[in-house]
Please model this.
Amino acid sequence: METSVAASLPSDELFDRMVRLRRDLHRRPELSLQEELTARRIAIELDDLGVTYRFGVGGHGIVAEIPGHSAGPTIALRADIDALPIFEETELPFASAVDGVMHACGHDGHTAILVGAAGLLIEQPAPGPTRLLFQPAEERGPGASALIEAGALDGVAAIFAGHLDRHYPPGTLAISDGPVNAASDGFIIEISGQQGHGARPHEAVDAVVVGSLLVTALQTIVSREVDPAHPSVVSVGRFDAGTAANVIAGTARLEGTIRSQEVEVREHLCRSVERIAAAIGQLHDAHVEVTIRRGNPPVVNPPHMADLARRAAADVAGTEVVPLRTVNMGSEDFGFFVERIPGCYIRYGGQVPGLEGYPAHSSRFDFDEEALRTGAAWMAAVARRAGTELG
Model:
């Protein structure tokens, strides 16, 4: 039987609170693991709303809880709160006052959305408790893992989150099942050859040649070893070698990233980097050492959770639900949460006409603040619906 769960948009008063919070955070952004003032500003809002919370969880995280109106499962809602090391060039009246630090990924908006959802859930609670996770260190740190280790998911039945997206207009919610964010792993390749004179290459083992062959060979992993239906990326972003123009380099260092959306493909890519590096090292009598640094797992929306998220979106008046337009190879540490419990990760349309060309992590990134209204309404709605259907 289909369950009806009404969902109202934030009042003008609550919306104004959200906008003020967003702009205050935007003016005073803080990097991963440094979000002390951000957390204190969030705490002010929670105190004013009468929401109980734990401060300093997993670093500068906040875990709050809103009681339900009856017996039901605990549902978690998450927002990330950290900023990026970017010089802002938006010329907004509330632009960053901190040189070299900017909310260039919408985390200021995500935080405001979760506070707005809190206000809505106080007015109309879910059946069971709703746990609010204000997560630090999503961009450059162990934020999700730190919250998990601190018990933030204990007793939680499902978790939901979203991200502002310039590809969709305000009022739009992009919801897809399956992989929606890629796993992100890094690699370091250390090459040890034999330094020598540039005029006598036969007396040396050229680390630049070995490294150059590696850069080329690594590109064949995706193009020749992975099914084209499974989006994947292997990129070398850094190549350091050499001390002088007439000296053959004895050492070199390559650094790169591996992106994948399926667990099996992820493991294959990592093994292939190691295999190719070892083979090229043996071919040229160089010692090659590979270090794989595991990063965020993929974010995968189970179909039944994506369907629940869509039904919650339909509870919100005036929303349009669409699938994601393109494969997203960016990573998100929300993957650590959905490795543990069911969940769904969506996109909030926040397109500003004329600024579509400035993506997240751009110095000119911005979003339409009307997206805060829709995002908060959906978060509250999905907590209520999940509490009803998963109970």
Observations:
- The first strand starts at residue 52 and ends at 57.
- The mean pLDDT is 96.
